[in-house]
Amino acid sequence: MTEAVPRSVAESYYKAYAARDAQTVAEYLDDNVEWTISGPVDVLPFCGKRHGKAAVLDLIERLVPEVITIFSFTPEAMLIDGDRVATLNSLAATRTIDGRVIRYRLAHFTRFRAGKVIENVSLLDSFDAAEQVLGHPLTSNTEFPEGDRIAV
Amino acid sequence: MAYSVSRTVVDAFYEAYAARDVAKVAPFLHPNIEWIVSGPMDVLPFCGTFRGKAAVVDLIGHRVPSVVKVFGFVPESVLVDGDQLAMLHRQSGRRGFDGRVVSYRVANFMRFEDDKVVTNLSLIDSFDAVEQMLGRPLSVHESPALDAGNVVAL
Questions:
Q1: Which of A135, B72, B88, B92 could cross-link to A109 by cystine, CB 3.0-4.6 Å?
Q2: How confident is the model at residue B43 (pLDDT cuts 50, 70, 90)?
Q3: Measured distance CA(B100)–CA(B121) in Å, rounded
């Protein structure tokens, strides 16, 4: 039987995560944590899979700030069910290269074991996020091939 | 006392939704439902904001199947807390116009009222979904067109 994560633990962890407080977040990461962010790695280099506490801390402390500097991380929903936590958040940040503001929604599905995060999957509207990070629309090259039109 | 949705209701709704059984999903939709699918509407026409039961039934029953016929719905996480349901799953389908298989992750955050879904927000890995729908990788490195007058001299 799985051990339920106490609400106080989940809330403390997410509070630290939202504040990008890597030192406190580290206390909640299992040594073998699996961390996945869905999205195009070539545009959003913080996407992809990472294994282990050190890799996740490197992601939070170095890889994400190299692309964006997060200044607002607002939770819209938090669900706790057994050993799992799901959150929906609004993220606002500036592009590190030029300070341009970007915003997108982000979901986390996290699994805890013995009070530590053992698994995280993050999902975002990656097309929207990629356009904002690139600073130009992708719609100019999203035409369907001739004859492949979708009728709705 | 605050309302909580029961596991029985969630399980019945989930079974109908995963099977894309519109007739069975419809009784779980609140008349004033707001259903949002985040993503580029010009490429994925099932994205956008849909208000009211009829609009959501049309979305699930017609709009989505005209683009992708869903045949796989594999749950990775299903959480129920109070009046809310969160789901993470991998959805597989065939493109409506050529049968090509597409597969991408979807997250749903739903809120229930009187055992009916009153709000839903769907997040999809939309970059991945768009590439699969187009059948080719997106070119992200091309320069945007220059405005008239912004001549570049080499």
A1: B88
A2: confident
A3: 27
In this complex, which of B42, B123, B144 lies closest to A105 when CB atoms are compared?
B123
Q: Do the chains contact at B105 and A124, CB–CB below 8 Å?
A: no
| Alpha-carbon dihedral sign for residues A107, A24, A116, B79 | negative
**Helix or strand or coil: residue A107?**
strand
Distances (CA, A) of A91 to A17, A50, A66, B122: 12, 21, 16, 16
User: For residue B62, how far is the Cα from the chain centroid?
Assistant: 13
Which chain B positions have a beta carbon within 8 Å of A78's beta carbon?
A: 81
Encode pLDDT of A99-145 as tens digits: 999 999 999 999 999 999 999 999 999 998 888 888 888 864 555 55
Query: Going by C-beta distance under 8 Å and a sequence separation of 6 or more, which residues neighbour residue B34?
Result: B49, B50, B51, B118, B119, B120
CA atoms within 13 A on the CB side of B45: 16
Could you give the angle at the alpha carbon of A37 between the alpha carbons of A129 and B59, nearest 5°? 60
ipTM of the complex: 0.89
- The 10 Å CB-count burial string (b at 16+, else e) for A25-60 is beebbbeebbbbbbbbeebbebbeebeebeebbebb
Cβ–Cβ < 8 Å for B29, B116: yes
Q: Looking at chain A, which residue has its C-alpha nearest residue B99?
A: A148
B102: β partners: B93
One-letter amino acid at B46 equals F
Distance CA A129, CA B46 (A): 19
Q: What is the pTM of this model?
A: 0.89
List residues of chain A with CB under 8 Å from any CB of chain B. 38-40, 42-43, 76-81, 84-86, 88, 105-107, 109, 111, 121, 123-130, 134, 136-142, 144-145, 148-152
**Cβ(B50)–Cβ(B135) below 8 Å:** no
More confident residue, B98 or A4: A4
